[in-house]
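[Automated response] Your request has been received and processed.

Submitted sequence:
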Amino acid sequence: MRYLIMLIGFVVWLGGTALAGEPVAAGPRTITVALDGSGDFTSIQEAVDSAKKGDTVFLKPGAYPQDLTIHSKENIKLIGAGTDKVTLLGHGQMVGVLHVGKWPYGATNIEIKGMTINEHGGHALGIFNGNGITLRDLHVKGMLFGQQVQDVRIEDCVIGGSETTGVQFADSQAVLVGNYIHDNDHGVNVAGKSEVRLERNVITRSLFEAVVVNDRAKAILIRNTLVKNGGGAAFLGNSQSEAFGNVVGLNKVGFLVAQSSQAKTSFNALYNSDGNYMRAGSPNTPAPELKQDSDLIGDPRFVDAEHDDFRLRADSALLNVGQFPFLGALPPVQPSAANRQPK
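Generated structure:
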């Protein structure tokens, strides 16, 4: 019996190691970067270059005077300790601070979250020739630019301070959900043959339009709050767009539509100083015929628009409209218990 047990153990050992030809692969790693030397690396680039499929690169708190390019990588995460704790400052002559993918190399299934990214040379973050890119809980101080990228998701980010455009896509496919995009020349620009969905974003204080859809791009705008901009949304070129459930208010112009574009709209709320519906031209001309029967015109009754609190008051007319519990990006405030009427 003793010899039988020994023989079984020997066979198991052969099957697990010797017959396999190599040791069992290690699981995903967490690679730590710290400026003070307490991590595995002080250089983010070196840490990312060492990462294998499934690994996470974690950035300890600090202001990193470094650039970063992620390319030829698949299924890795770059996670910072928080937007208020980690800042990528950039360094050298590179335009932009963080780049994901580059020609002819791409990057696939990359997740980046929990840090602030400064601008350098007008750009902050660029995505090129990639697929499956997720950006979440970032503070981007400058332009976020994507070209020839697919399956991009930008969620719960703060993006602002660009002297051109906050978020721009060319020939790309992306979804933007729950972002706060502020203080840019244009908020979001969708160009080329891009297909972009914007849902529950607040876009404010753009010098010009909050959203521009141009060329042959396709865009879907659902329940966004586009407020205090030069214009709300412009549908230009040969673009094709749909806009449902948005609040477009306190801008100069609400919807600007070119004759050559296609824009389907319904259940939008508009409240703008120079015109709610305009045809693009030189000059632009009023186009009240673009109003849909389901659209609402009038003060949305924000909690405090002067101080950028764009939640709807409990007495707003924008609650329970069509299939929407409320229009726009932000849930309305609830009446206080003291103001509720007994049943």
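Summary generated for your ticket: Residues 31-339 form a domain with the Pectate Lyase C-like fold (CATH 2.160.20.10). The longest strand covers residues 107-117.
If you did not submit this request, please reply to this message.
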